[in-house]
Write a structure and sequence with these properties.
Structural class: alpha/beta
Largest sheet: 5 strands, parallel
Strand order of the largest sheet: 2-5-8-1-9
Number of helices: 13
CATH topology of one domain: Helicase, Ruva Protein, domain 3
Distance between the termini: 13 Å
């Protein structure tokens, strides 16, 4: 086993700890286990999430529930047209008492940052947040300030109300590991919300089950999950196929390949495996790749969707055949990672 790969015992411990987090968040956000798991995958993979959904389906609740369960700092930024970049990153102020300048951190200095309606802010303010997401630091007046670890941005967009908004350019959407939609709950889940939480604060019953330092440690474990050469080739073939699809003008970038690999390792770890399998790539291809595609004008006129393109790609790229485990490393039957 390579030095950076993790033992099955470490991964089992990670899976157990993340299961406690997942179960806690599910107790206040009913009927959306897939979305909760994918956000936790993003957290372990060191990525960020763009939630595109209508108001009232639980976007803010999801971010606060994860922050409460993990016992870490959470901040919320309501993006508006008059929001300044310094409101996000922070500003240097003069302290009259001491006669010195002091940095006052902005809202981005938290473990989990909820950016509500990011498309309502101007491009400069959007860029301030997106730069912090990419660099994990901000520079104000020539001084660089590191951001907390772990660091997760959950940005939201309302896909219905577009008047007075500034849509994220393709290059900025590429900074998000995943784009997700929570959607409306089922009738049964909505009834349960009314019965269990109709008379009180839904977050009041939550208690921390882990902390920020533990999540940072688990992230390092997830980074060492094994991905076999055949698995990595399959992942690259999927990404490259998006660039060659006739309906696509601009396909997924090499950054998308790296993002998909990081996410696949995190999903494998949460699932209790110390190796990646093709099903991990298939499960993540849509949330990780679809928002990075730019469709050709003719395809848009035909109402072709990025979702449909990804599904076609997954159906056309050959899945690697099972390999016999070697070197004493145990794998489940049929696993390529």
């Amino acid at each position: 086993m390579a030095a950076n790969e993790r033992s099955s015992g470490e991964v089992e411990q990670l899976a157990a700890e993340m299961e406690r987090v997942e179960r806690s968040v599910r107790s206040v956000l009913e009927g959306k286990p897939e979305v909760i798991r994918l956000v936790l995958v993003s957290l372990l993979a060191g990525g960020h999430v763009l939630l595109e959904d209508v108001p009232g389906v639980g976007k803010t609740l999801l971010a606060k529930a994860i922050g409460t369960t993990i016992d870490c700092s959470v901040s919320r930024v309501q993006f508006t047209p008059d929001l300044l970049p310094t409101d996000v990153t922070g500003v240097t102020v003069y302290q009259q008492e001491s006669g010195a300048f002091r940095f006052r951190p902005g809202a981005v200095f938290a473990n989990i940052v909820l950016g509500d309606e990011i498309n309502r802010a101007g491009p400069k303010t959007q860029s301030a947040l997106l730069e912090a997401m990419e660099e994990r630091q901000v520079t104000v007046d020539g001084t660089t300030h590191g951001l907390p670890d772990p660091f997760l941005v959950i940005a939201t967009q309302n896909p219905v109300e577009l008047e007075g908004t500034y849509p994220l350019p393709e290059a900025q959407r590429d900074r998000f590991l995943m784009r997700l939609s929570i959607g409306y709950p089922s009738a049964e889940a909505e009834l349960e919300v009314l019965e269990v939480h109709g008379a009180g604060d839904r977050l009041g019953s939550l208690a921390p089950v882990t902390d920020a330092s533990a999540i940072s440690r688990l992230r390092r474990v997830a980074e060492g999950v094994h991905a076999a050469p055949a698995l990595r080739r399959y992942l690259v073939d999927v990404v490259r196929a998006t660039r060659e699809h006739p309906a696509v003008e601009l396909g997924a970038s090499p950054r998308a390949s790296l993002s998909l690999l990081r996410a696949a390792r995190a999903l494998a770890a949460i699932s209790g495996r110390d190796f990646v399998i093709p099903d991990d790539v298939k499960a993540l291809a849509l949330p990780v790749l679809a928002h990075r595609l730019v469709l050709a004008p003719e395809a848009q006129m035909r109402e072709t969707s990025a979702t449909g393109v990804i599904q076609e790609v997954l159906g056309s790229v050959a899945v690697p055949s099972p390999e016999r485990p070697s070197g004493g490393r145990r794998r489940a039957a049929g696993a390529q990672g």
